[in-house]
Write a structure and sequence with these properties.
The complex is a heterodimer of chains A (about 290) and B (about 600).
Chain A: H1 5-12, E1 27-46, H2 58-64, E2 68-76, E3 79-85, H3 95-112, E4 116-122, E5 130-131, H4 141-149, H5 159-167, E6 176-180, H6 187-197, E7 201-207, H7 209-212, E8 219-224, E9 230-234, H8 237-260, E10 263-269, H9 274-284
Parallel strand pairs in A: 3-4, 3-6, 6-7, 7-10
Antiparallel strand pairs in A: 1-2, 4-5, 8-9
Chain B: E1 2-3, H1 15-23, E2 29-33, H2 59-76, E3 78-83, E4 89-95, H3 105-117, E5 125-131, E6 136-142, H4 145-153, H5 164-173, E7 181-187, E8 202-203, E9 205-209, E10 217-224, E11 232-240, E12 246-254, E13 257-266, E14 271-278, E15 285-291, E16 302-306, E17 313-319, H6 323-331, E18 335-337, E19 345-349, E20 360-363, E21 373-382, E22 385-386, E23 402-410, E24 415-420, E25 423-431, E26 434-439, H7 454-465, E27 476-477, E28 482-483, E29 491-495, E30 501-504, E31 510-511, E32 518-525, E33 531-540, H8 543-546, E34 555-556, E35 567-571, H9 573-593
Parallel strand pairs in B: 4-5, 4-7, 7-9, 8-34, 17-18, 17-19, 19-20, 20-26, 27-33
Antiparallel strand pairs in B: 1-3, 3-35, 5-6, 10-11, 11-14, 12-13, 12-15, 15-16, 21-23, 22-24, 24-25, 25-26, 28-31, 29-30, 29-32, 32-33
Helix pairs in contact in B: 1-2, 2-9, 3-4
Classes of the chains: A alpha/beta (about 290), B alpha/beta (about 600).
């Protein structure tokens, strides 16, 4: 079971918040970029033939002599693109498991709020993206849960290609939730791609504790789990301090770049209790509520 | 410090490759990480084109060098020299005669010998000789302290007289030209008589003297008359070797059944005797035992004897004869005066010996027999020598014998049994294959007939002259061999007095391990399992040993000559091995735990 019942109950009381108007296929609970049939007044516009006579504001016509029709807000469903990184680097320690549970939690929250979820994993078996069937309500959760459970780490990361492929899924435009360790050279441009598309969303940056603070000693030849590239390292206090500085800079850059591209950022150390801590952090940032 | 194998010091050169290993760069360990992206920003690794690096002096390196040094030292076998009583080869001659059983003398001797034997080594070999009646080597040129200790601990006192002379000759025979040999004699030195157990001064021997003693009451004589009518007489003599009065209770048992108990009052340093008539048949074992006697020597508190068969010998007395001779002939069972003209034995008492064609006892004959020449006479002769271990004189004390006038004889080929200074008084010999015994004095001119031992000596002489026709040997001193006559192919099984059994190879005709006093029963174990009974023999504790006399022998120091004598080489090996093990454990702990490298805790 991916999510414990207690966590599910907690998630059902929460809902994703969208900072932008959304364009969904179906009505929902999020403000749409379109005008609709809700009770919330939005604007006036000139009457044009064909408009519903019932929306003509007769008070304004009597007072100003112009024929205007009242426009109301529309509410659409939120089309959420959930991209989970399952590259080989995510197989380190409990990173993938943490990513799976996080993805499940976000998806469950969205589904319980009536939002549509477009789940995908990168890389796919033969392509950059392995897209699963979208789900719109909790009835699709078992299938989505099974799909998440089936994910296994392999292959190199190519976030840009994955985001490009995900953007063209469906007709709706919605925010991206990216769950990844961002440990590939193209992580920055990939986020820029989402920023340029104006999707917004959330970056959950999953790193193992020993990636933040490595436990290595001696003269080592480090082998990249994804590419097989090697690098010689002679550990020393200086070396380890330099690595810690590099990690800190990496995290800072990731956060800054995410925000610059209109996305929220949360660093998730892959350790027990990480999911609950992340939910709290998201609530504090009013990403969920 | 010196080394027994200094060539191994060359192994110290192994320190060079050891240090070189520390200067070699270790091959980098491959570790898989999720990504090397961040490590690229750390900067280039410290590496060099050459496979060497500057030597870092670490505690581990110092410890390993120390272990190498200790290991090399262990192989080179360092040693130190210690003064020792042992020489390159030392022979322990340990006296196991009856007197060594007195008051723990043998135990003390064994303890001392064991203490010395523990220093045995390749450079200090030790041999051990048991000095009993028949000296034997129980350990030869041994460097194994364990074997030596076991051999020494196995020695037990016998009831016999030691033959120290033969033991020392055997010890000298063990000397080898390449190793100076020392001889340690662990002995009480024998009784303090004028003539010692070995010719003194003893050359090249160190005498370790054990002379502890305490009160002792002993059965010093136990003899029997052959039985003719189903009854027998036993003579028992008890000696008190303490300086206080004692009452000795003697229990006499026939074949294990107690038949008589006699109490004998004993003054200080006195003897008491008794004659007991028993209902015993020929071949029965009669055992005398002192009751409730706690003293310093327990082996002489029991004595056994066999009842003889009572075969009759006829004897004729030629010459004047005497009342004493008549009484002797009457008293000795199995001997009767000859009625006819063909006696078995002849006693020539002061008469002209002439041609006697049968075994004869010559007593101060007017003309000596063939082989004996009278060269003069001596007056007031006093006994100075009594041949030790002589069966005829067993339990016969002639120290109080005084002779008013005796012949001064020369008898080449005859064996002197008793002497007064250089003059033999009693001689043993053969004339044309016939046994003969010669007394150089007239019985009536001596106090022999009034000596307690007179009837015993007389009976033995007559028995010996008759060729031991008593059939069954009544008793013999401990150490006397037992003759066996096994059927063809049969092994000889001897049941010892303590109940243990010894098996001799088929065809063995002599059993010599008879130092233990008591009854020996011989059986012949045939090839097909049939068992035939052999002779029963009794060996008695030699009375002279009961006194527990001792003397410090005069010795002349050995000329061991070599400078290497008296040194004991002790190796440091065991201590070094312990240090090596301790260092290795520390090295293992340091090498695997690396306590100076604290592992960082994970966030």
């Amino acid at each position: 079971m991916l999510l414990e019942p207690e966590l599910r109950a907690q998630l059902e009381r929460l809902a994703l918040r969208s900072r932008r108007r959304v364009r969904g296929m179906w009505s929902g609970r999020h403000a749409s970029v379109q005008r609709g049939e809700s009770l919330d007044f939005a604007d006036y516009r000139q009457y044009t033939p064909g408009d519903d006579f019932r929306r003509i504001d007769h008070n304004l016509r009597a007072r100003l002599g112009v024929v205007l029709v009242r426009l109301f807000e529309a509410e659409d469903e939120l089309p959420l693109h959930l991209v989970c990184d399952v590259s080989a680097s995510m197989g380190h320690r409990t990173k993938l498991r943490t990513a799976q549970v996080l993805a499940g939690a976000i998806a469950y929250m969205a589904l319980s709020g009536g939002d549509r979820v477009y789940p995908a994993a990168t890389p796919g078996r033969h392509t950059a993206l392995d897209a699963a069937q979208p789900a719109r309500h909790l009835g699709g959760w078992p299938r989505l849960e099974a799909w998440l459970e089936s994910l296994s780490p392999s292959g190199p990361t190519n976030l840009a290609a994955a985001f490009q492929a995900a953007r063209h899924r469906g007709v709706a435009r919605g925010p991206f939730v990216v769950i990844s360790d961002l440990l590939s050279e193209g992580w920055g441009p990939a986020l820029d791609l989402l920023g340029a598309a104006g999707t917004g969303g959330l970056v959950l940056h999953v790193l193992a504790p020993d990636e933040l603070e490595p436990d290595l000693s001696g003269d080592l030849r480090l082998v990249d789990a994804e590419t097989g590239a090697t690098i010689d390292v002679s550990t020393s206090e200086t070396t380890m301090a330099a690595y810690r500085d590099a990690v800190a800079a990496f995290v800072r850059d990731a956060a800054a770049r995410s925000r610059r591209n209109g996305m929220d950022y949360v660093l998730v150390p892959a350790r027990p209790g990480a999911v609950s801590e992340t939910i709290l952090a998201l609530a504090a940032a009013e990403v969920v509520g | 410090m010196s080394f027994l194998a200094p060539a191994f010091l060359g192994l110290a050169a192994l320190a060079i490759p050891l240090v070189a290993l520390y200067m070699l760069r270790s091959r980098r360990q491959r570790v898989e990480v999720p990504s090397v992206m961040l490590w690229k920003e750390v900067g280039p690794a410290v590496s060099s084109a050459v496979p060497w690096q500057r030597l870092k002096i670490t505690p581990l390196l110092l410890l390993q060098l120390l272990i190498l040094a200790v290991f090399v030292a262990l192989l080179a076998r360092p040693f130190f020299v210690q003064e020792s009583e042992l020489g390159p080869h030392t022979v322990f001659v340990i006296d196991t005669s009856g007197s060594m059983a007195m008051d723990g003398r043998l135990d003390a001797a064994k303890n001392r010998a064991v203490g010395l034997a523990r220093d045995a080594s390749e450079a200090n070999l030790i041999s051990v000789i048991e000095a009993g009646t028949k000296p034997r080597v129980v350990a030869a040129f041994s460097q194994d302290a364990g074997d030596l200790v076991r051999a020494i601990e196995a020695l037990e006192p016998g009831g016999a007289v030691e033959d120290l002379g033969a033991a020392l000759r055997l010890a000298r025979g063990l000397a080898s030209p390449d190793r100076p040999t020392r001889v340690f004699l662990f002995s009480d030195g024998g009784p303090p008589s004028e003539v010692g157990p070995v010719e003194e001064p003893v050359l090249g021997v160190r005498h370790l003297w054990f002379d502890s003693r305490d009160d002792n009451v002993a059965i010093t004589a136990f003899a029997t008359d052959p039985s003719t009518e189903g009854t027998a007489r036993v003579f028992v003599e008890i000696s008190n070797f303490s300086d206080r009065e004692r009452t000795a209770s003697v229990e006499v048992a026939v074949e294990g059944v107690v038949t008589a108990v006699a109490d004998i009052e004993l003054g200080p340093l006195a003897r008491g005797r008794d004659t007991i008539r028993l209902d015993a048949a020929p071949g029965d074992v009669v055992t005398a035992r002192l009751l409730d006697n706690v003293d310093a020597l327990g082996m002489d508190d029991t004595s056994s004897v066999l009842i003889g068969t009572g075969a009759q010998q006829t004897v004729t007395v030629l010459g004047e004869g005497s009342l004493f001779l008549d009484a002797l002939i009457d008293a000795v069972p199995g001997v009767t005066r000859a009625a006819g003209a063909a006696p078995d034995l002849a006693i020539v008492d002061g008469a002209f010996a002439g041609e006697v064609d049968r075994p004869a006892w010559y007593i101060n004959p007017e003309r000596p027999p063939e082989g004996v020449t009278v060269t003069g006479f001596i007056e007031n002769a006093v006994v100075t020598y009594q041949r030790p271990g002589e069966p005829l004189l067993e339990a016969v004390d002639l120290s109080q014998l005084a002779v008013a006038r005796a012949q001064l004889v020369e008898a080449p080929g005859w064996l002197p049994l008793v002497r007064a200074s250089d003059a033999p008084l009693v001689l043993l010999g053969e004339i044309e294959g016939r046994r003969a015994i010669y007394f150089a004095f007239d019985l009536t001119h001596s106090n022999l007939p009034v000596q307690v031992s007179y009837p015993i000596l007389g009976a033995r002489i007559l028995d010996w002259l008759g060729g031991g026709q008593a059939q069954i040997e009544a008793a013999a001193p401990a150490g006397t061999p037992i003759a066996t006559a096994p059927p063809e192919g049969a092994a000889v099984v001897v049941t010892m007095p303590d109940g243990s059994e010894r098996t001799l190879p088929a065809g063995s005709t002599l059993f010599t391990d008879t130092a233990q006093p008591g009854v020996y029963r011989v059986a012949y174990d045939g090839e097909e399992g049939e068992v035939a009974q052999g002779p029963v023999a009794v060996r008695q504790f030699v009375a002279a040993e009961s006194a527990g006399g001792s003397r410090e022998l005069q010795v002349v120091a050995a000329d061991t000559g070599g400078a290497d004598t008296g040194r004991l080489i002790r190796e440091w090996g065991p201590r070094i091995l312990l240090v090596l093990i301790a260092l290795s454990l520390v090295e293992w702990w340091l090498g695997h735990q690396r306590p100076w490298l604290r592992r960082r805790s994970l966030a």
